[in-house]
Write a sequence for this structure.
């Protein structure tokens, strides 16, 4: 039973991460398997790419915000990167992130990118790295704007929306960064 459950998890993971649509042939435990996955009618032009941090504290709120507030449920691809924008604005890791963005832009005809960064981000060293809440806010919003500029320079046709989220006692709050 454990082996079957493990196989099912591997199978589902492959479908999710490979983005298999239509009839696909997969090799699972050395057995060739044909899988049919419904692609849906809305996949294609107009897809949005959402970039967030991997921080578990924000994962559920991010999904709710994307699905309900942005209104793109089922019409977006999602990349979670430790530090969210840190690796995009950092020249030594920028090309790795751009290689992923390029694949989404080319394969899914992406026309919009949504970047969500958050306060107290471990990728930046958390709150302690900034000395004050104001310094952290200025630094993160500046990096968000820099990330938008870098993406637009490489992909001038993309629309890039930016959000900064904060964990509060009431929950996660999202602020649009202009």
């Amino acid at each position: 039973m454990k082996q079957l459950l493990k196989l099912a998890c591997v199978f589902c993971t492959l479908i999710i991460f490979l983005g298999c649509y239509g009839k696909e042939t997969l090799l699972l435990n050395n057995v060739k398997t044909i899988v049919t996955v419904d692609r849906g009618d809305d996949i294609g032009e107009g897809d949005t790419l959402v970039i967030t941090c991997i921080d578990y504290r924000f994962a559920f709120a991010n999904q709710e915000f994307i699905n309900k507030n942005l209104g793109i449920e089922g019409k977006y691809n999602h990349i979670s990167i430790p530090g969210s924008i840190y690796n995009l604005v950092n020249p030594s890791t920028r090309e790795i992130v751009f290689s992923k963005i390029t694949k989404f832009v080319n394969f899914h005809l992406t026309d919009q990118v949504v970047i969500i960064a958050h306060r107290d981000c471990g990728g930046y060293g958390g709150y302690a790295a900034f000395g004050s809440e104001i310094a952290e806010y200025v630094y993160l919003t500046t990096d968000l704007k820099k990330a938008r500029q870098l993406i637009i320079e490489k992909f001038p046709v993309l629309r890039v929306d930016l959000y900064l989220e904060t964990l509060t006692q009431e929950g996660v709050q999202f602020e649009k960064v202009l």
Observations:
- The beta strands are 22-28, 31-37, 48-52, 76-80, 112-118, 159-168, 171-177.
- The longest helix spans residues 133-154.
- The helical segments are 2-18, 56-69, 86-89, 94-108, 133-154.
